């Protein structure tokens, strides 16, 4: 258990679990926006070079959606059967559902550009996060911290990458997905608040490489 847990953490975990599930539901609703824009008008006439560039950017995003889906699957299998573990799992599965929707939409957009979508690997390397102390797979709390770091990086990546796209519809959709990743990070931080940790839901006015350390939580 995290050393920063206050006496509030001794309250009924039924309340905490409800907060976790509600936070995940909010993130799930936000993910619905932008998917229609992702494939709309993508097939319109675009120079071959622009299509290939956009497809490469989308495939890079798709790689990380595959990674997130895999990471949540691995984490779900390592969570305990405690109330905290069940609550974290409920939120993780809601976030994972968003990533699956992102995966499907991105793959469809890449295909519409005449390029083959990148496939999922059997496993992904998360050791850099663990070595930096930004989460682990050894406890419910540390798994949530690892998810937070991954979601924070996803939000930052979308923010920096979508500006390089050529297709306006893809830019709009990419911004929608990026906002959902930020919602995931906020929902996870809200879960820590529900568990009695004193921190802000949104620790900075921006989510970027400059503010990353304010968003992630150390083990």
Topology, element by element:
Elements (H helix, E strand, L loop, with lengths): L12 H18 L4 H5 L8 H31 L4 H30 L14 H5 L8 H22 L6 H27 L17 H4 L4
Helix pairs in contact: 1-4, 1-7, 3-4, 3-6, 4-6, 4-7, 6-7
Structure description:
This protein is mostly helical and 219 residues long. It has one domain (7-41, 48-119, 127-215): Ferritin. The protein contains 8 helices and no strands. The protein has helices at 13-30, 35-39, 48-78, 83-112, 127-131, 140-161, 168-194, 212-215. α4 (83-112) packs antiparallel against α7 (168-194) and α6 (140-161) runs antiparallel to α7. It is globular and about 55 Å long. 45% of the residues are buried. The model is unreliable at 1-35 (pLDDT under 50).
| Biggest sheet character | none
Number of helices: 8
The number of domains: 1
For the termini, the CA-CA separation is 10 Å
The CATH homologous superfamily is termed Ferritin, core subunit, four-helix bundle
Q: State the CATH architecture.
A: Up-down Bundle
Number of strand segments: 0
**Average pLDDT metric:** 81
Rg from alpha-carbon coordinates = 18 Å
CATH class division: Mainly Alpha
The string of secondary-structure elements, in order, is HHHHHHHH
Overall 3D form = globular
Structural class: mainly alpha
Helix fraction, binned, reads 55-70%
Strand content: under 5%
CATH topology: Ferritin
Low-pLDDT segments: 1-35
